Amino acid sequence: MDTISDILDTLKFKGCIYFTTDFSAPWGIRVPDFKRVVRFHIVTSGQCWVKIAGHSEGTTLSPGDIIVIPHGAAHTLSDKAESPVLPLDDAIEVSGYQGTGVFKFGGDEQLNNVELICGHFEFDQNFRHALIEQLPDLIVVKNNEAMKYPWLGDSIRSLSYETQVKRIGNDAVIKRLSEIIFIHAIRAWSERTEQTEGFLLAVSDQKLGKSLQAFHADPARRWTLNELAVEAGLSRTVFAQRFKDVAGMPAMQYVTEWRAQQSQKLLLESSRSVEEIAEIVGYDSLAAFSRMFKKLFGIGPGMFRRRGKEDKS
């Protein structure tokens, strides 16, 4: 499994489609903020205006454009910047939308209706990762960018189709297509803005990417800075500085934090003992594992497991 897929699986990253729309002017909807989700909208027909809370300017979206809102910020969608808006829940109530089919809303003008695919990527509240946290409030991928990748257009058309039919494996197909679109969006943002640091850039780096791939393939190995450098084909000193400059954190800090994420998952989802989990994630000593865990999360692994079970009950 590649590094990004491993991270998304650990985060329990899952694409979810709310609805497809048929909005007629004048219309406007205010979408509330929601933590631990990455919202997205894909324009399949017409044009619309979008403005993110806290941003002074909005932007116009056209057919084929994709907008990703990595931190679930509140935002407004409308046919024009000056159009009145309703909270999403009120718009759904007014329209009579029951959760299936097409969400139809707006005024009497039937020309240039706007069709969107709206949804989000949700991830487990117990897990965090720099891949998500380092993203901006808003990513827009214009159609002319998307056209550079013919398969992306195919993915969007397939996603549009899957949201309108019920067939065997429908949810799995939507999940995978959504992930493809998300990965492309953050890749396009990284390339367009010429980022000089960030976890995504580290994964894409020819040298650092090899080291990250090796670590993610075998996190239980007793990794040292020197061994990570060997995987990258760099000296220990050069690797340490390059990783910190590009990823935005020291390499061994990343190793520690990823092991902590893995241990959280095992504590919540398996019946293995804390001692076994410590060994699985690369610790020879239960005491050292417990110190690391408490330092990062404020409680010991045993208490974390008990609270997790209480939350489920």
Overall average pLDDT: 88
Give me the secondary-structure category.
alpha+beta
CATH superfamily of the largest domain: Regulatory protein AraC
Global Rg:
22 Å
Please report the distance between the alpha carbons of the first and last residues.
33 Å
CATH architecture of the largest domain: Sandwich
Number of continuous helical runs: 14
Strand content: 15-25%
Order of strands across the widest beta sheet? 9-1-10-3-6-11
The fold-level CATH name of the largest domain is: Jelly Rolls
Question: Gist?
Answer:
By secondary structure, the chain is α+β, with helices and mostly antiparallel strands. 47% of the residues lie in helices and 19% in strands.
Description:
The chain is built from 14 helices and eleven strands. It has helices at 3-10, 88-95, 130-133, 143-146, 150-162, 170-192, 199-204, 206-217, 225-232, 236-247, 251-269, 274-280, 286-297, 301-312, and strands at 14-24, 28-31, 37-45, 48-52, 59-61, 66-69, 75-78, 86-87, 102-106, 115-122, 139-141. The model has no long low-confidence stretch (mean pLDDT 88). The two termini are 33 Å apart. The protein folds into two domains: 3-192, Jelly Rolls; 201-312, Arc Repressor Mutant, subunit A (Orthogonal Bundle), CATH 1.10.10.60. The strands form two sheets. It has a six-stranded mixed sheet, sandwiched between helices. The chain has a five-stranded mixed sheet with strand order 5-4-7-2-8. Strand 4 (48-52) and strand 5 (59-61) form a beta hairpin. Helices cover 47% and strands 19% of the residues. It is of the alpha+beta class and 313 residues long.
